Amino acid sequence: MKKFLVSLMAAFALLFVSACGGSDSSEGQSGSTEKVGEDKGTELTKDNFADEIMKAQLDAGTAHLVMTMTMGGQEITMDGDMSVAEKPADTAMSLTMDGEALGAGDTDLEMRLVDQVMYMKMGQATGDKFARIDLTDESNPMGAQFSEMMEQSNPATQVEAMGESIESFEDGGDGGEIDGVSTTKYRITLNAAKMYEAQGTDPSAMAGLPETIEYVMYVGDDNLPRRLEAEVMGATAVNEWTKWGEDVDISAPSDDEITDQNPFAGMGG
């Protein structure tokens, strides 16, 4: 259940903020605040929602993301920066996760994705350094799994999946002010099986899960998402996006911060 929810919310995080393309890994990524807060004057509908949201994000280029999940009285938080691109190969992000909530002690876990390489700092499991996973290495089972995840989170794939799986779309009216911007609240119901089928995910992964998933999305007049709320089988999840268009610094760890230790040794594909 926890694995499904983390995967689900991560997929939506990457749909709405899937990182920068073409930047040198040693330099910061630049966004644009020029159109942030600007009224697009576009009525969002079931048919154009995913496309319009994606266009606005590509214009802004960057964002800060906080993901909070609560299940069984336990809260898991992910916090980080992303910038926006159209291709998964150009994706970059930096996320910090609550290690205690994930069973890794009181050390926060860190994940960075730069130039198709995933760096994961997992406390004692990696000697407090970053394990390196090359997503282009087909001989590495973990690399192949992460690469598949990134391919499925490609915004083009996600936009298509979302468009094909929306069963209902309702304008819920005023969503209040979030991150200094007036928002509109949208209630969206997705067909879970159709969403995963469009992503290329094995349908067996949906066994025992609800047929539909309901989201509440708060979107600014600039068509940028500010908050997403979901509840699945008693577990709740909230994504919050701020600082759209502000410059971020997403870089690979230095050589002395990287370990050859493989925390996934013995795990099959």
UniProtKB/TrEMBL annotation:
<dbReference type="InterPro" id="IPR029046">
    <property type="entry name" value="LolA/LolB/LppX"/>
</dbReference>
<feature type="signal peptide">
    <location>
        <begin position="1"/>
        <end position="19"/>
    </location>
</feature>
<feature type="region of interest" description="Disordered">
    <location>
        <begin position="250"/>
        <end position="269"/>
    </location>
</feature>
<protein>
    <recommendedName>
        <fullName>LppX_LprAFG lipoprotein</fullName>
    </recommendedName>
</protein>
<feature type="compositionally biased region" description="Low complexity">
    <location>
        <begin position="22"/>
        <end position="32"/>
    </location>
</feature>
<keyword id="KW-0732">Signal</keyword>
<feature type="compositionally biased region" description="Basic and acidic residues">
    <location>
        <begin position="35"/>
        <end position="44"/>
    </location>
</feature>
<feature type="region of interest" description="Disordered">
    <location>
        <begin position="22"/>
        <end position="44"/>
    </location>
</feature>
